[in-house]
Amino acid sequence: MKISKICCIGAGYVGGPTMAVIAQKCPHIQVKVVDINQARIDAWNDSDLDRLPVYEPGLDKIVADARGKNLFFSTDVDQAIKEADMVFISVNTPTKTYGEGKGQAADLKWIEKCARQIAAASDSDKIVVEKSTLPVRTAEAVKDILDNTGNGHKFQILSNPEFLAEGTAVEDLLDPDRVLIGGDTSSPDGLEAIASLVDIYANWVSRDKILSTNVWSSELSKLTANAFLAQRVSSINSLSELCESTEADIHEVSRAIGKDSRIGPKFLQASVGFGGSCFQKDILNLVYISRSYGLTEVADYWEQVIKMNDHQKGRFAKKIIKSLYNTVSGKKIAFLGWAFKKDTNDTRESAAIYVADHLLNEGANVYVYDPKVSEEQMYGDIDYLNSRSKVDNRKLLQSEDDPYDVCKGAHAIAILTEWDEFKDYDWEVIYHSMQKPCQIFDGRNLLDKEKLEKIGFRVYSIGKS
Ligand code: UDX
Ligand code: ADP
Description:
This protein has helices at 15-25, 38-45, 59-66, 77-83, 109-121, 138-149, 169-174, 188-201, 215-245, 250-258, 279-292, 296-323, 351-361, 375-384, 390-396, 403-407, 427-433, 449-455; strands spanning 5-9, 30-34, 71-74, 86-89, 126-130, 155-159, 179-183, 210-214, 332-336, 365-369, 397-399, 412-415, 439-442, 458-461. The protein is α/β, with parallel strands linked by helices. α1 (15-25) packs across α3 and α12 (296-323) crosses α13. The model has no long low-confidence stretch (mean pLDDT 95). The structure holds uridine-5'-diphosphate-xylopyranose and adenosine-5'-diphosphate. Residues 9-15, 34-37, 40, 77, 90-92, 110, 113-114, 132, 277 line the site of adenosine-5'-diphosphate. Belongs to the UDP-glucose/GDP-mannose dehydrogenase family.
């Protein structure tokens, strides 16, 4: 089947960048990205490219290149489905906050809604592609809904999990390590659907990097890849605590083990804890599915990765409190960074939120500067935890547009995100504007410890004694 029109449901961090790259690389294909969120679609259509809803280096140029030619953003979901030969599902799949599986299983109500909408709006056969991270066997449920509620049209379901990392999404999309496509490998129609999607990626990805598997292997591979990556971060973070109690230095340990080609150097950076929309959610899915098959040891094994991450965030907050003479009540604490990593405006599950919450519980006044995150977003994140009233959150947490203002008069600075610009600040000026003794808690081991100590700062770095 030759694909000439694509629809993508969900214009978020996955759908937006992925479709922009497909449109740019496949000028012969019309790509429509649709969303129920009018404000988000308006932002994607904004002529001011600084106002795109997703900040990713390089994305603005790609959108400018393709938008209006073969890339369109709209809220008319039904029309886009109707026209399309291939429909990508890229909607959010947050962890359930109620009922069975609360706190662990993915909430699939958005996916089900999408499947029903695709069935109702379709007046021809279609290939439906799962792009969102989903628990294993979701494709089966989507197929069941489409086959039973559709108007007699045939649907092929593919799983095509996204491996882009935020902050490097454009690079990852343009030059992926691999593209994974799961489909019904046992039927000619399934193989044909897989081939259609392979042909799209083959416009810019070499065919030997495009892997096809059955649907369930594809779904499980996505969860597994994220679980392995998160496990590496928790492993190195667990050792950072041991380093702090000994004379070892986590940076030296990472470098030494990373030279082993079997281990490799990536994802060994000790930090205040991993965040992002995927790691925790995917591991929780893995834990939930393992438990539902009675595999207690498997579930417990993966759950420990999350426990370690929670511990790392908590111990960072406790370290700040202990170093400030066991009381932060009424003290100004400056946060540099709120995003879950640099080069993104995404804050989902960011360690900063949890560290802030801990300090706010102790009555601290937290002032935050992040180059890409709005104050509104910060309040949304902290309100979501329901730890105190919205009024109290606004009294205790402030956002500022100037990092020097944030640090002025502070008892301590905490680095929560590894934004490059933090390295270039005039730390001498900051030192003289702060309460003494000046303390820096570097949750990303970003700053030059020795240089800061020469200025007079007391510096706590993760995993260094
Ligand atoms: C991840 C996967 O990398 C990607 O393939 C998948 O598609 C989505 O989930 P993402 O969450 O965007 O991507 O970012 P990633 O670079 O994986 O970082 C996740 C978190 O781990 C961040 O908070 C980051 O700061 C932290 N991290 C990463 C560390 O603390 N140390 C490291 O060495 C690496
Ligand atoms: P991700 O990181 O997976 O891309 P986001 O939350 O950034 O997640 O984006 C998901 C998008 O999907 C949101 O903009 C949301 O409004 C949209 N969405 C959710 N359900 C539907 C639906 N039924 N139809 C259209 N869009 C939807």
